[in-house]
Design brief:
Blueprint (H helix, E strand, L loop, with lengths): L3 E9 L5 E5 L2 E6 L2 E6 L7 E5 L2 E9 L1 H22 L2 E8 L6 E5 L2 E5 L8 E4 L5 E4 L3 E6 L2 H16 E2 L2 E2 L14 E8 L3
């Protein structure tokens, strides 16, 4: 078993961002809003703010705990990017014959007429995410990358499975198979 004696990572705080660290709870506030994450499930690491940077530090870490240092640093960097520039995921609605109807109702995305089926497929909207639906495109925007990405995944998975059996992306005898669905094609920043 390999044990790392001392691991330290410093994350510089961007100019227009205000960061507050209370224990292992990090709150990042910027021009687009506020994102808050709790890292209290990680016991072996110390998380604190030193001047204009955030320090993640640990002593005598095993391999898995050492990997968590970089993971938490990436989460905090994404929080700062989110409150300054935001995240936008674009998804394309693909259908061969039956036009798919997509609409937003409350905290759910309703998908109708998928493969001509009468049943409604429902995808949950995670967190404070805004969704715009045009004729053949779904645009998901938000400041929390995890919420934006999970909402996009929920929409994709709602059209990926059908009933108890999985649709094959490959047809019989090497034909094109079922290509209908809602697919992610672009990731960008709002600003």
């Amino acid at each position: 078993m390999v044990v790392e004696v001392h691991v330290r990572e410093e994350i510089p705080i961007e100019r227009e961002v205000e960061v507050r660290v209370e224990g292992k709870k990090v709150t990042v506030k910027g021009p687009l809003g506020t994102v808050e994450k709790d890292f209290s499930h990680v016991k072996a690491l110390d998380l604190r703010k030193e001047g204009d940077k955030i320090v993640i530090e640990g002593y005598f870490l095993r391999k898995r705990e050492h990997a968590l240092v970089g993971t938490i640093a990436s989460h905090i960097r994404n929080m700062m990017i989110g409150v300054t520039r935001g995240f936008r995921y674009k998804m394309y609605i693909v259908y061969a014959h039956f036009p798919i109807s997509v609409k937003v109702e409350g905290d759910k995305v309703i998908i109708e007429n998928f493969l001509g089926s009468k049943d409604r497929r429902i995808a949950k909207i995670v967190g404070n995410v805004k969704i715009k639906v045009t004729r053949d495109e779904v645009v998901i925007e938000g400041i929390d990358i995890e919420a934006v990405a999970q909402t996009a995944a929920n929409i994709h998975l709602a059209t990926h499975l059908t009933g108890k059996r999985r649709l094959s992306p490959h047809g019989r005898a090497g034909g094109p198979g079922v290509l209908d669905g809602i697919y992610l094609y672009a990731k960008e920043h709002i600003k």
